[in-house]
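Title: Comparing notes on inverse folding

I've been comparing how different people in this forum approach sequence design from structure. To keep things fair, I'm posting one structure and asking everyone to reply with a full sequence. Here's the target:
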């Protein structure tokens, strides 16, 4: 008998419906079907890949109203945010359609033969890219469209020539099923095999682990917690034939605010930061979870008063904000537990109001010294929700030690780097070594889908800091270089399109 999984209304906790967990034999069949569809899809021309991706975008757009309504019930993210996220998702699908149509997956480095003895002389060589094969794609809870069934990983993998097997997220099971049936309709309309995009469902660890272990799976793409991503990355590495595992994980996204900037614009920066901390109830991987203030900056001397004033402004800006319900009851409880750990490690509350566990959380702001922060690893863990921790560094050297203690992050924001002083130069050097994206203005929430985007940073924010899950470069994760030496003309004539 199959195990039933429940979908919950995120606001009320009521059961919305149930779906069957994928049984082991069904998972095996889905992975085999993905593998069977690989041969033809890897050889497909860019125009065919583009046609599929655009049809998927059109279908998603056409079913916007019921899909957003369902997503809203399962996630409580609200219609405005979810409509925006759906727009982003169709944009990503269309952008990867354009990328495939332009022939980016088939780019060739041509090295014509050079007569003579090596090392200067060499045979005719061409460097191609081949798709890896079926990708196991783990959806995130907090992006039910953009990092889910038809999210960025699916778009980039299909554009690269790879089939996809989606692991639906248990926090939006009904939405995943609805989007998946739309995918199946489009595949049938285009005469493509159903197995090109498969989907499995399962709570707990079994289904996800079985998917990563399946011999037909050639790569993993994961968006979720550091803990879950680390466990699955270890599974991928422990296979008899290890596979690449691209894990986009949790992050605490430090904001380093230099005193001169706070002195000049403290009130407006506090308001902007408060909005970013509470956006989407703080449930963003780019949520600014850490604010580093430097109490003795070389240029300005003792700046404690400026920093104190900023912390007060931030607390006041946060106080009236009312975050919406969290994605799941488990996450709601984890938020309370996370901020409780701050207090246990000696943090001083700057804003803290208890809210019942069946109600949305209240914004939280706490403060510690850099010494405390460095001494207590618990303070460096992501607290997923509308809270942020202020760290007071005695000087710039200590601010850098704070970054070193964190290790790595998706983003770091540096306010006040407009003049290239020695102090600013060393900070910029440190931030570039620390994060995938360095912002010199604004706040880290909001990840633009562009050619230059880098969404992925050093551990613990990602398992593969050299790759990105957002933006055009995400395509490269699912391609592998192959050099063809003295290839026959018929093969060269394919212009980089695999067989
Ligand atoms: P999650 O709990 O790690 O879940 C992600 C997926 O992995 C789910 O399908 C989950 O299964 C599965 N899973 C988790 N641990 C597993 C394990 N040990 N074995 C097998 N499968 C496992 O994360 P989440 O709740 O979706 O999202 C919240 C986290 O994602 C936050 O930390 C946030 O910062 C991060 N996030 C990162 C990014 C980024 O781009 N870096 C973007 C968005 C969110 P179930 O569905 O059955 O639980």
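Reply #1:
Here's my take.
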């Amino acid at each position: 008998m199959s195990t039933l999984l429940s979908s919950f209304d995120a606001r009320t906790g009521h059961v919305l419906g149930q779906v069957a967990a994928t049984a082991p034999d069904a998972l095996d069949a889905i992975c085999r079907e993905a593998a069977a569809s690989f041969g033809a899809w890897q050889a497909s021309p860019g125009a065919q890949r583009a046609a599929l991706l655009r049809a998927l975008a059109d279908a998603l757009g056409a079913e916007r109203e019921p899909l957003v309504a369902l997503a809203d019930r399962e996630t409580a993210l609200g219609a405005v945010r979810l409509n925006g996220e759906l727009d982003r998702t169709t944009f990503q699908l269309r952008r990867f359609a354009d990328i495939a149509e332009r022939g980016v997956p088939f780019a060739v480095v041509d090295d014509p033969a050079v007569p003579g003895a090596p090392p200067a002389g060499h045979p005719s060589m061409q460097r191609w890219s081949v798709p890896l094969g079926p990708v196991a794609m783990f959806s995130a809870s907090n992006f039910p469209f953009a990092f889910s069934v038809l999210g960025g990983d699916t778009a980039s993998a299909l554009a690269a020539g790879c089939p996809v097997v989606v692991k639906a997220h248990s926090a939006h099971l009904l939405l995943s099923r609805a989007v998946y049936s739309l995918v199946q309709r489009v595949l049938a309309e285009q005469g493509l095999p159903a197995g090109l995009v498969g989907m499995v469902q399962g709570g707990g660890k079994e289904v996800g682990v079985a998917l990563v272990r399946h011999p037909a799976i050639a790569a993993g793409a994961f968006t979720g917690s550091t803990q879950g991503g680390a466990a699955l990355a270890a599974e991928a590495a422990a296979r008899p034939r290890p596979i690449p595992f691209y894990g986009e994980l949790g992050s605490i996204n430090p904001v380093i605010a230099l005193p001169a900037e706070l002195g000049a614009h403290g009130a407006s920066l506090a308001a902007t930061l408060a909005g970013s901390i509470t956006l989407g109830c703080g449930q963003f991987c780019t949520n600014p979870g850490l604010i580093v203030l430097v109490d003795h900056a070389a240029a300005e001397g003792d700046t404690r008063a400026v920093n104190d004033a900023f912390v007060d402004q931030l607390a006041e800006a946060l106080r009236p904000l009312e975050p919406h319900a969290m994605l799941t009851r488990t996450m709601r409880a984890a938020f309370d537990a996370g901020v409780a750990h701050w207090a246990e490690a000696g943090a001083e509350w700057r804003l803290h109001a208890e809210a019942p566990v069946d109600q949305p959380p209240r914004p939280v702001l706490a403060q510690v010294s850099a010494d405390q922060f460095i001494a207590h690893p618990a303070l460096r863990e992501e607290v997923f929700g509308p809270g942020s921790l202020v760290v007071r560094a005695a000087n710039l050297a200590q601010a850098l030690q704070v970054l070193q203690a964190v290790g790595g992050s998706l983003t770091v924001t540096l306010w006040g780097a407009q003049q290239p002083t020695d102090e600013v130069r060393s900070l910029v050097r440190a931030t570039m070594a620390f994060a995938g994206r360095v912002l010199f203005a604004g706040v880290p929430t909001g990840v633009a889908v562009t050619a230059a985007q880098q969404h992925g940073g050093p551990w613990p924010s990602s398992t593969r800091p050299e790759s990105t899950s957002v933006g055009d470069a995400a395509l490269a994760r699912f391609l592998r270089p192959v050099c063809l030496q003295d290839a026959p003309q018929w093969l060269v004539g394919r212009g980089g399109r695999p067989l």
